[in-house]
Amino acid sequence: MLKVEPIPAFQEPIPAFQDNYIWAIHDGHCAAVVDPGEAAPVEAFLAREGLTLGAIVITHHHGDHQGGVAGLLAAHPTAPDGAPLPVIGPAGERIGARTVAVREGDAVTVAYPSLQFKVLDVPGHTAGHVAYVADLPGAGPSVFCGDTLFASGCGRLFEGSPAQMLSSLDKLAALPGATRVYCAHEYTRSNVRFARAVEPHNAELAAWEARVDALRAVGTPTVPTTIGQEREVNPFLRSRVPAVREAVAAHAGGVAGNDAAAFGALRGWKDNFR
Known about the structure:
The chain is an alpha/beta fold. It contains 9 helices and 14 strands.
């Protein structure tokens, strides 16, 4: 059954800009924030919830994911123990305030709140993009994937190749099906419209479209979803499925030569979809 996973009390989306989500992970006392593109919404959230900022976690270098770091550091230069506030980010990206550089396979510990992340390299949207996987009490396996994987979609290829993005999505798709997917944008409605164009006969996708419309009609986030759900309704995790390959070939006027070429054609179709 398709559904949006309920957001645990200690994982909350902070809306920013037009459609960003800054994810706050907290224990009722301290919070880590993922991809704070703006400082003001984070400050308002911390004040409203009575939380102390304990860490900043960045997935990639784009300004709408790290633009609020300087302001947050100015207001919160230290962690609760008096040490400099940790700013965790990918080693291969331009993260000016980064204090902890991470790469594939690293295990990263956050003290406030108590968290441990495993790092995955997921290039494609940017060259050094990473995702953070954690097994969180009360939520279970979770992945904070920035702009690599979206609900029913994936990020544009600004710096990487189709082969890189396909490999990154394969890595995420291999996570346990129950893994909650915390992406950084509310793009689901437009993503689902495209997915329906690719797979008009996908019954799971039709049901998900109705659910998305109902959620957005009342301003409710459509995320987190799960890896298991994305395998059923996300064309970019289904680019090897015969129905998807046939739709791509029909749109492109020919059959792509390999998996990466088919994925690239699918991504190009989405880039120009209206």
